[in-house]
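A.,

Following up on our hallway conversation. Structure tokens first:
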């Protein structure tokens, strides 16, 4: 059965699912996305990745600041959609909108619900040391990612995964999962979530990206990978921020000073932590491009110094 679909999404994560729907037997009749925002050094108004794809395929685009106004809701209802597909849209859908499509609204969520509800499920899964994550297609309700689940796909989290690599894998999985869900919609049984298993994936902030050397090396490594590519984990050296792009946790003896650089080798900068050592392999000094940690350290006499 072919459905008339309203698609709502904004960032790059939403592009693969939209493309998959455009390539499917279903009809995308309209796209909702956030209003154009200033971006880049020139702060020029820039269309979202989803808007760019929609326009390239001559799909009508709607960019309301809110869906809570009678005008926006009437405009939405006039589209006469069978179903709405939402992925990382960025606006709250009021009940009137959730109730408008004949078959309701489906959300592509980047976690194995109810494990991580909220804004940053990919990053929080890495930070917590989860062994796997995945995609959940759920029926939307008025709660925060609380709707009944229709379909799940699974994705292992490897020791080398960053938020970017996991983002790309899950975007691809989400694209396939939403098409599979729509194709099987009449046969799928909705499964309620167990609220007792839910965790909140809080929105990321630049402040939390500052490295706390009193944590274990393993915990710091997970945060470095979870915050790559944004907001990027960092410490301070010579009163300047130093971004840590890549590092590995190693076993090692406990040292009196956490954050102290105890060894420099071509393999990296070794820093003492509350438990174990962190070998930093790639850094980005303020105002400069990413570089090998060893090259950064060569002229700076780092051994014995304490990173803040």
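Then the amino acids I'd put at each of the 308 positions:
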């Amino acid at each position: 059965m072919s459905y008339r679909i309203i698609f709502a999404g904004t960032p790059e994560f939403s592009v693969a699912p939209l493309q998959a729907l455009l390539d499917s037997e279903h009809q995308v009749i309209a796209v909702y996305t956030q209003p154009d925002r200033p971006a880049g050094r020139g702060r020029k108004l820039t269309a979202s990745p989803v808007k760019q794809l929609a326009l390239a395929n001559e799909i009508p685009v709607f960019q309301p600041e809110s869906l809570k106004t009678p005008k926006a809701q009437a405009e939405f209802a006039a589209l006469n959609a069978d179903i709405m597909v939402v992925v990382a849209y960025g606006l709250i859908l009021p009940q009137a909108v959730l109730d408008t499509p004949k078959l309701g609204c489906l959300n592509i969520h980047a976690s194995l619900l109810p494990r991580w509800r909220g804004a940053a499920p990919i990053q929080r899964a890495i930070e917590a040391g989860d062994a796997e994550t995945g995609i959940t297609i759920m029926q939307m309700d008025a709660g925060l990612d609380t709707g009944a689940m229709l379909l799940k796909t699974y994705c292992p989290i490897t020791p080398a995964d960053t938020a970017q690599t996991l983002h790309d894998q899950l975007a691809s999985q989400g694209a396939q999962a939403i098409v599979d869900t729509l194709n099987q919609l009449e046969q799928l049984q909705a499964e309620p979530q167990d609220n007792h298993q839910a965790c909140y994936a809080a929105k990321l902030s630049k402040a939390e990206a500052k490295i706390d050397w009193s944590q274990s090396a393993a915990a710091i490594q997970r945060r470095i990978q979870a915050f790559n590519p944004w907001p990027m984990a960092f410490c301070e050296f010579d009163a300047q921020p130093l971004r840590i792009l890549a590092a590995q946790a190693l076993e090692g003896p406990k040292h009196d000073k956490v954050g102290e650089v105890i060894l420099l080798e071509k393999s990296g900068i070794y820093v003492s932590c509350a438990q174990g050592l962190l070998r930093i392999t790639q850094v980005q000094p303020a105002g400069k491009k990413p570089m090998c940690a060893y090259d950064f350290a060569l002229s700076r006499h780092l051994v014995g110094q304490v990173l803040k």
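The first helix runs from residue 15 to 23. Curious whether your intuition agrees with the design.

B.
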